[in-house]
Amino acid sequence: MHYIVVDFEWNQPISSQSSIYRKIGDKLIFEMIQIGAVRVGPDFQPSEQISIPIAPTYYVRIHPRIRKMTGLGPDELAGAPDFNEAMDRFMQWCGEDCVLLTWGCDDISVLKQNMDFFECRQPLPMMCDIQRLFSNVHQQKDRMGLKTAMELAGIEEEEDRSFHNAVHDAWYTAKVFGTLPDPDEVLKYEQTPKALNRNRHHDKEKTPGEVFATLADALASETATRPVCPRCGRDAALEPGGYVPQSADKYIALAKCKQHGKLLIRLSFRVDDDGNRVMHRSVFPATGANVAYVHTKKLQIEARQAQYLEENGCLPDPEKELLEAERTSMPFDD
């Protein structure tokens, strides 16, 4: 048996309102555009590596933020194999009797959804989570990002290996794996994919995470300003006053669907390892209690801001408050 550390990069729709996203979004939230893998030697150090670009079939326009982070665009993906061809090549490279290792549970979930969508019949080896083992070994309550783990393990970034490149991230993950006192313990952390879904069931609509440079950009985005009714899928109109902070990383607002009435909009935020703001939006039919709560919260925030302004001569900085908020892991469909 041998270990192979894998990492994937994927594209996302330009907008949750795009025609292609509305058509297939529930079935393909993210479309994979790169497979990176590193074989781990008997000494638990990285050895061979492979990088396989994947030509997107549906989200063919690379999201600007994805292109900026990964360096992957039309030129880099020109002539690349499609998903099934890339998977065939990857599994042939892996060989028999291997265990796939990832950093966290995002990769296996995105992989499974892509395999289901493209009807890929490749049997997958056992997949285990290095991140969980590393966090337990270092007695960390929360899951750590790869960069943080590298710092804790004393691993420096290499000049020719930038982050957000699948094979480079797999290489760094393999290096972190090799610092563990008993790497074979990773077999205790077998993974199962989690469902990625917009959650339109049960009168609830939830978007996948979207990445923004600032909180202000996120709140002004189409996703925030044009919520969708979970019952009919039509755009709803935000109530005057817009969003009110429920906490440093959560915002709420009311909207109205012409057909189904009041809606409660919730935005949740986290800050990723690169300092970007990752936003998720949930939409529910609003109850009378929801409406009263939002109106009350607005009055509370107005009073709080007035007091803060009187004491400090300025309003509180929501960006700073978000950076100081407790971090949460990437949410999935529960």
Walk me through the topology.
Elements: E1 2-11, H1 19-24, E2 31-40, E3 46-53, H2 64-70, H3 74-77, H4 83-94, E4 98-102, H5 106-117, E5 127-129, H6 130-137, H7 146-153, H8 166-177, E6 205-206, E7 210-212, H9 215-219, H10 222-225, E8 237-238, E9 244-247, E10 250-257, E11 261-271, E12 277-285, H11 288-312, H12 318-323
Parallel strand pairs: 1-4, 4-5
Antiparallel strand pairs: 1-2, 2-3, 6-12, 7-12, 8-10, 9-10, 10-11, 11-12
Detailed description of the structure:
The protein is α+β, with helices and mostly antiparallel strands and 334 residues long. The strands form 2 sheets. Strands 6, 7, 8, 9, 10, 11 and 12 form a 7-stranded antiparallel beta sheet that branches. It has a 5-stranded mixed beta sheet with strand order 3-2-1-4-5, with helices on both faces. α7 packs parallel to α8. The C terminus is likely disordered.
